[in-house]
Amino acid sequence: MHTLVVGEALIDRVTAPDGSVAEHVGGSPANVAFGLGALGHGVELATWLGPDAHGARIEEVCRSRGIPLTPGSHGAASTPVAHALLDARGSATYTFDLEWAPESFPSHAVYGHIHLGSIGAVLQPGAGRVRRFLEEARDTATISYDPNLRPALMTLEEARDAVAAAVPLADVVKASDEDVDWIAPDKPLEDVAAEWGGLGPSLVVVTRGGEGALVHVTGSGEQLSLPAAATRLVDTVGAGDSFMAGLLSGLLDAGLLGSPDARDGLRKASLEDVTPAVQRALATAARTVAVAGAYAPSRAELA
């Protein structure tokens, strides 16, 4: 069955340290959809675009990558834009010009897995509608969630509320150490991962940039930190989304996502069972940071 990705698609307007500007199609959920498509998975995107040149560009990129937009993805006054300012190390700081107010979603019954991330889980009124959609979808589909929090767009209270609402709905949660440090600054990453696992997810992964990722498997209680793959750094745009796509790809291939039966398998999984998927995630992220923009590597590039 296909995977549905729900959330923002936008234009990343990237300003380099030398002042040069480039525009890329992005948005965390859109990047995850592109990543899954590049890795050979059937995927559709439910998003919110405007009737402008930026929206047309996003649609063209989606068509070129074989990612259909679902009905209900149009209606915004203007297509969202994220302004990314790169520092000398290639790290990005973001500001945003967007709205998130989709009014309808496709039938969840035709999807084996549904992914939600970032602004689409927080910004109202769309976030509440998405949450109700996921509550209905849990009977037939597995669910993943990436907070990918944006302090420029949300308050700390809004971020905490969004995480508290979404984590219990998810089978898999992937967060960055920056996400965790912002909403739980006084808690070790290991404790937060375990706490989130106790709320419902069978697998919680916390990425740590160049230091790799912390993996928590709820069923067995196992935790392990895995190192990042060796690579050269051009910029970090889309790295977390590439990691998310690689993680979902590995779990889908392993039969640990994509159906209620797969959910049961993930609940019983060990660290050994999920490690190959995390390794794929680390490899996809390493390939992404070696290329400018939110690059989505193929399976052949990971071989």
List keywords for this structure.
about 300 residues, alpha/beta, UDP-N-acetylmuramoyl-L-alanine:D-glutamate ligase, eight-stranded mixed β-sheet, four-stranded mixed β-sheet, 10 helices, about 35% helix
How helix-rich are the residues, as a percent range? 25-40%
Q: Superfamily at the CATH H level?
A: Ribokinase
Principal-axes shape call: globular
Main structural class: alpha/beta
Largest beta-sheet details = 8 strands, mixed
The separation of the N and C termini measures: 25 Å
Q: Which stretches of 5+ consecutive residues score pLDDT under 50?
A: none
The number of E-state strands comes to 12
CATH topology: UDP-N-acetylmuramoyl-L-alanine:D-glutamate ligase
| Overall CATH architecture | 3-Layer(aba) Sandwich
> What is the class in the CATH system?
Alpha Beta
Task: Spell out the blueprint of helices and strands.
Elements: E1 2-6, E2 10-15, E3 21-26, H1 28-38, E4 43-46, H2 53-64, E5 81-86, E6 92-97, E7 111-117, H3 126-137, E8 142-146, H4 156-166, E9 172-176, H5 177-183, H6 189-198, E10 203-207, E11 213-217, E12 223-226, H7 239-253, H8 260-267, H9 271-289, H10 299-302
Parallel strand pairs: 1-4, 1-7, 2-5, 7-8, 8-9, 9-10
Antiparallel strand pairs: 2-3, 5-6, 10-11, 11-12
Helix pairs in contact: 1-7, 7-9
Give a structural overview.
The protein is an alpha/beta fold. The chain has a single domain, classed as Ribokinase (UDP-N-acetylmuramoyl-L-alanine:D-glutamate ligase, 3-Layer(aba) Sandwich). The protein is 36% helix and 21% strand. The protein has helices at 28-38, 53-64, 126-137, 156-166, 177-183, 189-198, 239-253, 260-267, 271-289, 299-302; strands spanning 2-6, 10-15, 21-26, 43-46, 81-86, 92-97, 111-117, 142-146, 172-176, 203-207, 213-217, 223-226. The strands form two sheets. Strands 4-1-7-8-9-10-11-12 form an eight-stranded mixed sheet, with helices on both faces. The longest helix is centred in the last third of the chain and has 19 residues, at 271-289. The model has no long low-confidence stretch (mean pLDDT 93).
